[in-house]
Design goal:
The complex is a heterodimer of chains A (210) and B (72). With 210 residues, chain A is an alpha/beta fold. Helices cover 43% and strands 11% of the residues of chain A. Chain A has seven helices and six strands. Helices cover 53% and strands 4% of the residues of chain B. Chain B starts with a helix and ends in a 14-residue tail after the last helix. Chain B has three helices and one strand, in the order αβαα. The chains are: A alpha/beta (210), B mainly alpha (72). At the A-B interface, β4, β6, α6 and α7 of A face α1, β1, α2 and α3 of B.
Chain lengths: 210, 72
Amino acid sequence: MAAPKPTVAVPRARRVFINCPFDRSFEPLFLAYVAGLAGLGLTPITVAQLPSSRRSRLDRLYALISSCAASVHDLSRVQPSGSSRAPLPRFNMPFELGLAVAAGMGRRTHQWFAFEARSYRVLKTLSDLNGYEAFTHSENPVGVLREIGNAFSWRGGNQPTTADLKTIYRGLQEVAPKLKRQNHTASVYDVHVTNELMVAARLIVEDRGI
Amino acid sequence: MTTATRVRAASMAHPTAFLVRTRPPSSRQAAKELGLSRASIERVSEAVEALLRKTSTSGRYGQRPAAPAKKK
């Protein structure tokens, strides 16, 4: 399959980096992030879109995050995970949040938002965020949609409601298996599937007049 | 300045919410920006059309099904 074209054509003001676990059990929440952002007219960008080049992965990752106007960081996966007999915690999510915080410091204009399953837990797991309250979704897709709606707001106009975003989410839930099959992948995190979900979301918005 | 203070200062510099200032893209524009191939666009359109056909008859996703014609 041909590699996807770079997503540089998406204006920076609309690019939102999603930093989350990429495993099967997280798929419903990932779909909710995509539905919520796409419903608000924003374009989800994931690490799967990391361009290949001679630069180090870390440089490319920082460049990708910096190329987005905002980022959402799901810190809800605090328990050790993995299929091995000795599951390990994953540090990628808090690490990438650190890169986003750096991308937003000084005169740079990158906004970051931390999401968690439980209120105030992030203050124990990541006390450097003391003074910052994470958006709490209770591991529920509707909770993600609600909190995305709280984190991102429109200037004027009729911003889609949580119910509108839920309509998009349910639509994506239906089409995701088909898009995965057609792309010969079992993963919704595949860059082709994520991009097609974004377009599917906009088609649903247009049909439903959201 | 401690790390926590720096992070707090950075987050407090943020507005409470990200203000979406751009117009949402149309599906066609989104497909173009993301570099979707023609085949990919057709796949998505077919999948969504099938979904919308299904939902317009079953009344799911918040749309009521068409009312049955009244008997005369």
